[in-house]
Amino acid sequence: MELTRLRGFQDLLGPSARAVAHVEERARAIARRYAIEEIRIPMLERLELYERSSGETSDVVQKQMYLVRRHEESDPERGEMALRPEGTPGVVRAYIEAGLDKGDPEQRFFYLGPMLRYERPQKGRYRQFHQFGVELLGRADAAADAELMFMIDDLRRELGLELSFEVNSLGDAKCRPAYRAALLAWGRAHLDQLCEDCHQRIDRNPLRLLDCKVDARLAESAPRSVDFLCDECHRHFDLVRELLSSARVPFEVNPRLVRGLDYYTRTAFEVVSTAVGAQNAVAAGGRYDGLVEALGGAPVAGTGFAIGIERIALALDAAKLGGARADVVIIALGEKALAPAVAITRELREQNLRVEMLSPERGLRALLRRADRLGVRLAAIIGDDEIARGAVQLRDLKTSTQSEVPHADLARLIRTTRD
Ligand code: HAM
After folding, report:
1. Residue whose CA is at the smallest distance from ligand 1 atom 25
2. Which of 191, 203, 276, 375 has its CA 20 to 30 A from that of 337?
C-alpha cells in the first residue's frame, strides 16, 4: 500500500494554502466588524444529531456521512458517531446544552473549520472542505436574514469576486403543509419521469423533488413555494428583498431553490460564482425557525449561512497574494558569530520585520544563491570582524551592492529598502 492521501482529500501548499488562509482572514475580520463571537464545536457528534437536523432523507445523512466506530463491543457509543458534515447542528446543540435557549436566547456565533462529506470528488468538491459559518439565534426578523447576505456581500467586495445571490422563501409550519401536499400531488403525477432517489423520497420529503437529477427542466412545471406563503411569510419575504435592494446586494428570486438540508423555513439562499466551474455554489444558508425546538430546546428562531472556503479561494487569483517571504535573511559566518546572529534575528523580529535565518552549515556563496532563489532582497552577513565593530554587512541582492552598517541602524535600513 502506498501512503498517499485519500481520494477527495487535499494537501494545500504554497499559493493554494495562501489563498485559503487569505479568505479565512478576511472572513474573520468581517465577523469582527459585525460583532460576532467565535464558537468552537467538536468534529465528532452523535449520528442522531444529524438525523434529526440535516434530515434523514437528505443526501448528506443518507449517503455522505463518515461514521466512526469504536471497536470495543462494550463501548456504548459504538457506531453512533459521525464526523461533522456541516456546522449548524453542532452549533445549535451547543447552544441548547449551554442553556442559552432559555437563559439568553439572542446569540451570534461564527465558526471556521473542516467538514467531511463522502461526495464524488471533482474541482471545487472535496470530501474534506472548510466552512466559515454564521448562526444568529433568537432572531426571527427579516433584518437578520439580510445581515447574513450583507456579510457575504462584504466578502465579495473585499475579495473582488463576481457573485450572485439567489433567494427564495420555503414557508413555515403554517403554510408549508399545503405546499408539500401540492408538490406530492405533482410528484405522483410525474413519477415515471423522476429519478430513483425521488421515488424513495417522494413521501418523506417531496421538496427534494425539485432537485431531481434526471430532468432539471421538469421542475419548471412544479408548484412554487412562493405561491403558497401565508401572510406572515409573505411579509417576511418582501422585507428581506426590500432590505437587500436598498443595500444594493445583487440578487434574484429563484422559486425553484430548495436546500439539500431539511431544517429550513422561510428564507433560503444560495450564492453562486461565475468563476469556479460546475461547483459554483460558494455559500448557502437560510432560516431554521423550528430547529432549536426539534433538537430539544425552547422554541427559538434561527438563521445562518456557511461559505465554502476552498470554492471562494478557487475564484481568487492566488498569484497576487503575498507569501511569507522574508524582508531579510541573516547569514552567520563561523561558529562564534552564531549567538550574536541569533540575537540580531530575534531583535529584528521583535521590531515586526520578517526575518529568516539561513542554515550556518553552508558557505556564503551558496547562502546568497539561496536568498536570491527565495526572492529575498537583503542579506545581513555577520562574521567575527563585524561583531567586534558592532556592525553587519548589509547586501542588496537586487543592486549587488554591499555596505557595512551599524547594528543600531539595521532595522531602519531594512524597512526603507522594503517599502
Ligand atoms: P451547504 O449548502 O450544505 O449548507 O454548504 C454550504 C457551502 O459549503 C456550499 O455552498 C459550498 O460552498 C460548501 N461545500 C459544501 N459541500 C462541499 C464540498 N463537498 N466541497 C467543497 N465545498 C463544499 C450548509 O452546510 C449549512 N449548514 C449552511 C447553513 C448555516 N444554513 C444555515 N446556517
Report:
1. 86
2. 375
119 lines ligand 1 (CB under 6 A): yes
Q: What average pLDDT does the structure give for the chain? A: 93
Distance in Å, CA 384 to ligand 1 centroid? 59
Measured in degrees and rounded to the nearest 5, phi and psi for residue 307 equal: -105, 140
Q: Is the CB of 282 under 6 A from ligand 1?
A: yes
Rg (CA), the chain: 28
Residue written as grid cell 409573505:
234
Structural contact between residues 330 and 371, judged by C-beta atoms closer than 8 angstroms: no
Phi and psi torsions of 399, nearest 5°: -95, 0
CA distance 43 to 216: 35
Q: Which residues have C-beta within 8 Å of that of residue 256, sequence separation ≥ 6?
A: 168, 210, 219, 220, 222, 224
Nearest CA to ligand 1 atom 32: 304
Q: Report yes or no: 368 and 320 within 8 Å, Cβ to Cβ.
A: no
Phi and psi dihedrals of 418, rounded to 5?
A: -65, -45
Beta-carbon contacts of 37 under 8 Å, excluding residues fewer than 6 positions away, are 108, 109, 110
Q: Which pLDDT value is given to residue 259? A: 84
Q: Which string of DSSP letters, residue by residue, matches 174-208?
A: TTHHHHHHHHHHHHHHTGGGS-HHHHHHTTT-GGG
Closest Cα to residue 134, out of 154, 116, 117? 154
Asked if residue 77 has pLDDT above 70, the reply is: no
Query: Is residue 130 in contact with ligand 1, taking CB distance under 6 Å?
Result: no
